[in-house]
Amino acid sequence: MSTSTGYALELAGVRKVYGSGGGAVTALDDVSVGVPRGSFTAVMGPSGSGKSTFLHCAAGLDRPTSGRVALGGHEIGNLKESALTQLRRDRIGFIFQAYNLMPSLNVLQNITLPLRLAGRKPDPQWLRSVINGVGMESKLEHRPAELSGGQQQRVAIARALVARPDVVLADEPTGALDTRTGKQVLDLLRTIVDHMGQTVLMVTHDPVAASAADRVLFLADGKLAGHLDQPTPERVAEWMTHLGEW
Ligand code: ADP
Ligand code: MG
Cβ of 145: how many Cβ atoms within 10 Å? Predict the structure, then answer.
């Protein structure tokens, strides 16, 4: 695998087998993907197709049975657990369906928490642009319970960006939001790609959410079944119907 590619994230021949013998499940089967820097990629597939396993392998939270994963040109397969933890802190931002904010911390403290955990000081200019970018500048003293779901997800997006990661990994980021608020969060993810040069990889069930991406990757039975560039909700839904019939 090249280490000087334009890929923020690269998977090469990744297989993941859970269990062994007769009970073995191949969750990912020879998956090779390059995610270009500054792009927005969605991953879709039926339930059990390997989406979560894909995200966990990409994040170094789960080790592939074989194949390689590189983040920002750094292969992560041979890293010890402590080095992997540090790499995740420095190079990956996470966004979850359930926001996962700390209830006792205010908005500013939540946003800067990854830096504090890493023992790093925020770059004031970047911090300001991240806070302004998600539109939370007037709520920095608020606690999560005082915010709407959409606002909490915007705080989580700012937290994911604060360390200037190589890639932002999002697991169903609009899953808990109503349609209108979900659309605002997708617009925000689009903005951090288009105006901040961020790389975003998002797992979703929702064809409308997927159509915010530049490219949709489809997984079926742990295999990459194809991709769609410049997706529309209609074409994504068509693909999902086909995959469901397989
Ligand atoms: P998805 O997120 O698309 O629903 P997953 O990646 O969660 O799919 O799962 C893919 C396959 O791997 C499924 O058959 C699932 O049952 C299996 N699987 C996932 N995690 C484990 C695990 N920790 N142990 C055993 N099997 C697993
Ligand atoms: Mg899943």
Answer: 9
